[in-house]
Amino acid sequence: MATPALDSGALYDYLAAGRTTFTKRIGNVGDATAFVRVEVAELTYGPDGKPQERALEGTERPLIASPSRLIIPPGSYREIRVVYRGGRAAERYFRLRFVPVVPRAEEAFGLAQEAREEYQQAIVADVGVLKAIGGVVLVSPRPALFQTSVEQHDNQLRVANRGNTTVVLEGLALCQGPGECGQGKTVHVRPGKTFTLKGEKPQRFLFTLIEGKDRRRYTP
């Protein structure tokens, strides 16, 4: 059965200290038109490191995404503009969620009743099969200060972020030696946090440390 399938590209988007806006491309790689609602929530992290979401509504939102409704034909894409207008005293985190829906009369998709009913019948009776996707927006404080400690001892890597904004470990992989590394992954280390990774002896680590525009490569 024909259904839309969304692709929002990178999981993380970054607003550096000197930026307040960016555009994001949303594609439809499915075989049916996608009617998409854009939702924005702020993330806060508790002592256990788990994020809590708070939906942003009303006119005083610190982060807005426009337009908030998209119609994306199969094989096409649309762009939204994301604007941050909140404070920059500390780093903040937001979730963008793109939710494919069956249009309802109260939603501003501009479809007539007959067209809405035809679309609903063509997709499915249960909208639960329409899959939402999302990503995270990191808003750096102003000024952004980087102070990262990287320590490697035997089979252990320890990265401490003593700055005020997130640093990224890109392509982090365990290695037996040069050219003998496993599959890499991306790790975000938030301000005030320490990331530790242990391997089996003998083991070293391959990754690129990203601090804003600066990149430092660490090799085994």
What would a concise description of this structure say?
This protein has 220 residues and is mainly β.
Number of helices: 1
Q: What separation lies between the terminal Cα atoms?
A: 49 Å
Q: What is the approximate shape? A: globular
Instruction: Describe the largest sheet.
Output: 6 strands, mixed
Number of strands: 18
Structural class: mainly beta
Just name the CATH architecture of the largest domain.
Answer: Sandwich
Structure in words:
The chain has 220 residues and is mainly beta. It has 2 domains: 6-139, Sandwich (Immunoglobulin-like), CATH 2.60.40; 148-218, Immunoglobulin-like, CATH 2.60.40. The chain has one helix spanning 113-123, and strands at 6-7, 12-15, 21-28, 34-45, 51-55, 63-66, 69-72, 77-84, 92-100, 133-139, 148-153, 156-161, 167-177, 180-181, 185-189, 194-198, 204-211, 214-218. Strands 2, 4, 5, 7, 9 and 10 form a 6-stranded mixed sheet that branches. A hairpin with a 2-residue loop joins strand 13 (167-177) and strand 14 (180-181).
Question: Which helices and strands, and how do they pair?
Answer:
Blueprint: E1 6-7, E2 12-15, E3 21-28, E4 34-45, E5 51-55, E6 63-66, E7 69-72, E8 77-84, E9 92-100, H1 113-123, E10 133-139, E11 148-153, E12 156-161, E13 167-177, E14 180-181, E15 185-189, E16 194-198, E17 204-211, E18 214-218
